[in-house]
């Protein structure tokens, strides 16, 4: 099942797509939810009803054609949790900036997101940012609270997966002791185009992951190359800290970021960034004016 948030004018609605069918709003199917966060919390109880209503629906989804696909979770319930340097090749390419070659523990940080940037959304080119970078990442969405859970219990807490571009202002990121500001400017978290539920992904640790800038391949790897797995990260984070339903976790980026190039080739106005993860789709954004 693919879960979308659609927008027409000022109206937003949650929609679903099953198999190769059309995208149908839950309202059209007779199912009422407030927003994607509400669906996430109620998903287990609504799943069968959604599938039944979708199978019985006689239309073709054409009434949804006037809507624009926006970020699947436009306003996250909390800051996004991120894993840093979680691919070996990314550690190696950034060693001259920050040396994590001897790290033994997972690097965690958070990303303030007042509102998620949409597919086809503009990434602002702030005049105080001189080193704008891209990072394609697999995003994980939890569907129920997790506290003190084991690695084996994590799968039961995962709703599904999405694509996140962890856009970064490198000059701000390394100006401060923490990465928070350089990762958290408005527009710096494109996400989408949808959430693919976990039952549609055979193995989240065997997904091809790529990023293009102006059709030039910059990042190419597979989620099998993660150092800390999704299950290990969620379990570790949940020890003594409640991860609420709706928690979004960005699982790290492979090598090929602009900062790692010699010399660095940072993003500039009108650059188009296309992030792809097999089984989920494509997330495309352009750098433009604030």
Biggest sheet layout: 10 strands, mixed
Treating each run of at least 4 consecutive H or I residues as one helix, how many helices? 5
Taken from the alpha-carbon principal axes, the silhouette is globular
Distance between the termini: 34 Å
Helix percentage range: 10-25%
Question: Multimeric state of these chains?
Answer: single chain
Listing every helix as H and every strand as E from the N terminus to the C terminus, the arrangement reads EEEHEEHEEEEEEHHEEEHEEE
Look up the CATH topology of the largest domain.
Answer: Fumarylacetoacetate hydrolase, domain 2
Annotated CATH architecture of the largest domain? Alpha-Beta Complex
Strand percentage, roughly? 25-35%
List the domain count as a whole number: 2
Mean pLDDT: 94
CATH superfamily of the largest domain: Fumarylacetoacetase-like, C-terminal domain
User: What is the radius of gyration?
Assistant: 19 Å
CATH class of the largest domain: Alpha Beta
Helix/sheet category:
alpha+beta
What are the segments in which pLDDT stays under 50 over at least 5 consecutive residues?
none
């Amino acid at each position: 099942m693919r879960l979308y948030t659609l927008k027409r004018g000022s109206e937003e609605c949650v929609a679903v797509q099953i198999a190769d069918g059309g995208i149908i709003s839950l309202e059209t199917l007779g199912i009422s939810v407030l927003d994607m966060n509400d669906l996430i919390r109620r998903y287990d109880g609504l799943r069968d009803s959604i599938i039944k209503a979708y199978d019985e629906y006689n239309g073709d989804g054409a009434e949804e054609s006037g809507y624009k696909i926006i970020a699947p979770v436009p306003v996250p319930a909390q800051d996004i949790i991120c894993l840093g340097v979680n691919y070996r090749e990314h550690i190696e390419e950034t060693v001259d900036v920050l040396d994590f070659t001897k790290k033994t523990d997972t690097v965690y940080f958070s990303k303030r997101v007042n509102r998620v940037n949409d597919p086809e959304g503009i990434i602002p080119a702030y005049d105080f940012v001189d080193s704008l970078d891209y990072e394609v990442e697999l995003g994980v969405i939890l569907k129920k609270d997790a506290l003190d859970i084991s690695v084996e219990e994590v799968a039961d807490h995962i709703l599904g997966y999405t694509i996140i571009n962890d856009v970064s202002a490198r000059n701000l990121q390394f100006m401060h002791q923490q990465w928070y500001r350089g990762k958290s400017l408005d527009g710096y978290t494109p996400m989408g185009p949808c959430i693919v539920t976990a039952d549609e992904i055979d193995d989240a640790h065997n997904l091809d992951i790529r990023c293009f800038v102006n059709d030039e391949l910059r990042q190419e790897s597979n989620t099998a190359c993660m150092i800390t797995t999704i299950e290990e990260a969620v379990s570790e984070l949940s020890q003594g800290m409640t991860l609420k339903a709706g928690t979004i976790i960005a699982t790290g980026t492979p090598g090929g970021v602009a900062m790692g190039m010699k010399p660095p080739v940072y993003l500039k106005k009108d650059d188009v960034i296309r992030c792809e993860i097999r089984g989920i789709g494509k997330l495309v954004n352009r750098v433009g004016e604030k």
